[in-house]
Amino acid sequence: MSRDNRLDSIKGVLIIFISNIPGGFPFLFALFRRLWRPFLRFCAYFLLSLHGRSLDRGARNVIFLQAGMANNFFRFKQFTVFQDRCAMKVGTDGALLGAWAKGGAHILDVGTGTGVVALMMAQRFPMATVHAVEVDPLAAGQANENVVASPFADRVAVQLASLQQWAADESNGARYDAVVANPPYFQQALRCPDGSRSMARHDVSLSYDDLFACTARLLTPTGVFTVVIPFDCLEALLKASREHGFHLCRRCDVRTTPRKAPRRHLLSFSLQPPSSPCLIEQGVIEDAPGHRSPWYASLLRDFYL
User: What are the Cα distances from residue 95, in Å, to 46, 285, 292, 301?
Assistant: First the structure.
């Protein structure tokens, strides 16, 4: 039987099969929506079973992060992050920010989501007090649960508030040595119909102007503000920073692999002009598919299992 005949036979069998299923195509579509994530997870486990001997556990974590698997939790060395009620899950951007940003005695995490960055900063800076603000009630509630279950519960506090509300609240008297943010990054794009996800990804509740204006009020004179952003948001963010009196003092251009152009940027700003030229670093996540680069492995060694 030729290849075309075999394909025609398969299509005929599928048509007969579908036509005899109650509900037909709508039923199959609904079934696909329910099963596609478990199917992808099965495929990932299958691939890992084939190549597991050549991958360390941290590299496996990267595979699941970059595959977009909606796991209910993500386990780090010293804490676990549950995320089933959060619009944005644990991802590479947050891990990079939490491991790279400068800290201090008082730290603010803007838009904490799952709380992962706040927890990473608390782990890195054992004497620090960390405040984490989140505007989405479901995410704030889960972030608080993650904090309470962590070893850093006495030093991390989650607040249900927008950055604008937190900066305007004179009663808290908060001033921070370090502010970190993984800000909304879709400035001019079609919004997601999921309200929580749209709030996390789009600037519907926090524009770059608001981000810098509020941070300027909350930062100490010698404090540092650090963000992680996609490559195509760089110019808009730098423009907003200059308009609000910030100076770029440190930058890391992060590539997924050595041959690809940078896909994200880690940026640190200060209100005081830097005494030396901006330090520009280069980072690579994987030096080969499934293998963390030495830079990334070193950066996350205290966190990934």
Answer: 26, 11, 14, 11
Beta strand pairing status for 247-255 and 264-270?
antiparallel
Q: Concatenate the DSSP letters of all residues of 36-61 into one string.
A: HHHHHHHHHHHHHHHHGGG--HHHHH
Nearest to 300, CA basis, from 82, 108, 72, 61: 61
Q: Which of 41-55, 85-99, 268-282 has the lowest mean pLDDT?
A: 41-55
**DSSP string across 72-107:** SEEE-SS-EEE-TT-SS---HHHHHHHHHS---SEE
pLDDT digits (tens, 9 = 90+) for 249-285: 999 999 999 999 999 999 999 999 988 999 999 999 9
Tell how many helices (H) and how many strands (E) occur in the chain: 11, 12
In whole angstroms, what is the distance from residue 291 CA to residue 305 CA? 14
Distance of CA 276 to the CA centre of its chain: 30
Kindly tell me the burial class for residue 231, based on how many C-beta atoms sit within 10 Å of its own C-beta (0-12, 13-18, 19 or more).
middle
Q: How confident is the model at residue 199 (pLDDT cuts 50, 70, 90)?
A: very low
3-state secondary structure of 286: strand
